[in-house]
């Protein structure tokens, strides 16, 4: 704190968790935070944004090349990515409400929540949150054909 000599250089980052009802219009597709703002909890917002991009490329690369992108194809990207987004955001809101908010309000948390105690007791269970955070709910793989320039 001693290093901060000028508060005008410090900006407050707004944290929100939301989703657009519709991610697309003719000629426009929103993905990543443009479609669904993510909280920092879990450090997964970037994973989701990249997975949206891979899903969009898989569905749209060939139609884009053929100049045949339809509204239905744009809707298919939203349809594919909505479920993982909802689940991940629900996880973030759960952690926010059950762990972070109480701590910020100064609640004396002597006994960790049951889920934490179970993870502590049974190390095998830790693979489930690790998988959720690392790979996401619906991992995406690149399926577009390789194209070389020239
Ligand atoms: C405080 C905070 C901490 C976070 N920490 C983490 C973390 O540790 N790990 C994690 O995975 N996620 C974290 N997140 C979430 C993560 O930042 C986002 O989910 C992720 O950055 C979304 O990526 P994106 O590419 O969709 O959007 P962004 O990263 O927001 O990228 C959008 C880009 O578009 C640019 N842009 C905007 N308007 C225009 C324009 N008109 N023309 C040209 N360019 C424009 C912006 O400058 C920006 O570079 C955090 C979020 C917050 C608020």
What attributes does this structure have?
mainly alpha; two-stranded antiparallel ribbon; 150 residues; single chain; FAD/NAD(P)-binding domain; binds flavin-adenine dinucleotide; 3% strand
Please characterize this protein's 3D structure.
It is a single chain. With 150 residues, the chain is mainly alpha-helical. Helices cover 48% and strands 3% of the residues. The protein has a single domain, classed as FAD/NAD(P)-binding domain (3-Layer(bba) Sandwich). The protein contains four helices and two strands. Strands 1-2 form a two-stranded antiparallel ribbon. A hairpin with a 2-residue loop joins strand 1 (24-25) and strand 2. The longest helix is centred in the middle third of the chain and has 34 residues, at 71-104. The radius of gyration is 20 Å and the shape is globular. The mean pLDDT is 92. Bound molecules: flavin-adenine dinucleotide.
Summarize the entry for a quick read:
The protein has helices spanning 45-66, 71-104, 114-121, 127-134, and strands at 24-25, 28-29. It is an all-alpha fold.
Tell me the name of the CATH homologous superfamily. Answer: FAD/NAD(P)-binding domain
**How can the largest sheet be summarized?**
2 strands, antiparallel
What is the typical, i.e. mean, pLDDT? 92
Query: Unreliable stretches, pLDDT < 50, 5 or more residues?
Result: none
In which range does the helix fraction lie?
A: 40-55%
CATH topology: FAD/NAD(P)-binding domain
Query: Shape from CA axes?
Result: globular
* CATH architecture term: 3-Layer(bba) Sandwich
* Sequence of secondary-structure elements: EEHHHH
Instruction: Give the cofactors and ligands.
Output: flavin-adenine dinucleotide
The number of helices is: 4
Class per helix and strand makeup: mainly alpha
Proportion of residues in extended strands: under 5%
C-alpha termini separation:
54 Å
Number of strands: 2
Summed up, the domain count is: 1
| Rg calc | 20 Å
Strand order of the largest sheet: 1-2
